[in-house]
Amino acid sequence: MHDVLIIGAGPIGLACGIEAEKAGLEYVIIDKGCLVNSIYNYPLGMTFFSSSEKLEIGGVPFISHLNKPNRFEALEYYRRVAMTWSLKVRLYEEVKTAVKEEDGIFTITTSKGVYKTKAVIIATGFYDIPYLMNVPGEDLPKVAHYYKEPHPYFGQKIIVVGAANSAVDVALETYRKGAEVTMVVRESGILDTVKYWVKPDIENRIEEGSIKSYFNSEITEIRPHEVDIMTPDGPKTVENDYVMAMTGYKPNFSLMEAMGVEFQKDELHTPIFNDKTQESNVENIYLAGVVCGGLKTNKWFIENSRVHAEVIIEDLAIKKK
Ligand SMILES: Cc1cc2nc3c(=O)[nH]c(=O)nc-3n(C[C@H](O)[C@H](O)[C@H](O)COP(=O)(O)OP(=O)(O)OC[C@H]3O[C@@H](n4cnc5c(N)ncnc54)[C@H](O)[C@@H]3O)c2cc1C
C-alpha cells in the first residue's frame, strides 16, 4: 500500500516524488513514457525560456552553458535529479483507471499491474493531444503535429500553421536550414506571447518576404502536393510538400473525469481544486503542474508550479499524523 501514487514523471511529478521522499511517505511515480517524456518529445534544438535555476527541483543545481538551457541539458539534469534522489519511478507504464473504493483507498490499474494507494497526485501535463485543424487530408503522412528537427525539410515547400512560440520556432529553424516556408495564421499577426527576443526576428523575415505568410487565413484542404488556403483575398492553392500543424496541445482530461474530478463551467475546462492544498473536489486526489490550468496551458509551467509539490506533500503529511 502506497501513501501516494504520482501519475506523470515530468518535472513536477518528480518534484512531488522528492517531497514525498523527504517526508518519509511511501510513494511511486508512474509514467507512460520515458523520464520527463514531454521534454524528450520537444524539438531537438529547443531552448527553454526559463533560466536554468528556475527549472531546478530538489535542491539539485542546474548548470547550463548559457543562461537559458536547452532540451539536451534539461534531459541530463532531470536524469541526474532522479538518480540523486533515487526516485522510485516506473516508466513505460500507463495509468488506465483509478477507482476510489468504499474504504477511501484507491485502486490504480496500469498497463502493467494494480496498485493500492491512499492518495493520488495527477501531474499528467498537456502534451498528449494536439488540436486538430479538422480539414480533409490532415491524416496524410506529410502532416505533423510534433516537430523534431529541420534537416528533412531542406529544399522542401513547407507550411507552418500557427503563430505562437512553437510555430515561430519551426518556421525560423526550417527557413534557416533551407526550407521554403509559408506560414498560415488564423490571427492577424504573430502572437504577443511569442518570446520577446524571437518576435522581431520572425516579423522581419516575414516583412522582407524570406518567409511567406497568410494572416487571417485557414487551411481548408491538404492534398499530397497542394494545399488550399482560405485568405481574406479569397481561396488560394499553393504547392506543398509538408505541413507542420503547430496548433497547440491540450491535456487528456479523460482520466481526471473518470476519477470524479470536476471542472469549472468555463471554456478553459479548468479543474476544480483548493489553491491552498492543490486537492481536487475528490478527497485525496491532488493536481500538480501544468494540468491545473485546463486548456490554458501557458498558465502553469515548471518555474511557477514546482511549488505544488511542497504544498501537496505538506497536506498529506499533516493528514498522516
Ligand atoms: C516547446 C516548449 C518549451 C517550453 N519551455 C518552458 C520553459 O522555458 N520554462 C518552463 O517552466 N516551462 C516550459 N514549457 C512548459 C513545460 O515544459 C511544462 O510546463 C512542463 O513540462 C510541465 O511539467 P509537468 O510535470 O506538469 O508535465 P509534463 O512535463 O508534461 O509531464 C507529464 C507526464 O505525465 C505523463 N503521463 C500523461 N498521462 C499519463 C498516464 N495516463 N499514465 C502515466 N503517465 C502519464 C506524460 O508521459 C509526461 O511524462 C515549455 C513547453 C514547450 C512545449
From TrEMBL:
Keyword tags: Flavoprotein, Oxidoreductase
The keyword Oxidoreductase is assigned to this record: yes
The keyword Flavoprotein is annotated on this UniProt entry: yes
Listed Pfam families: Pyr_redox_3 (PF13738)
GO-annotated molecular function: oxidoreductase activity
Entries under Gene3D superfamilies matching the protein: FAD/NAD(P)-binding domain
SUPFAM superfamilies: FAD/NAD(P)-binding domain
Protein name as annotated: YpdA family putative bacillithiol disulfide reductase
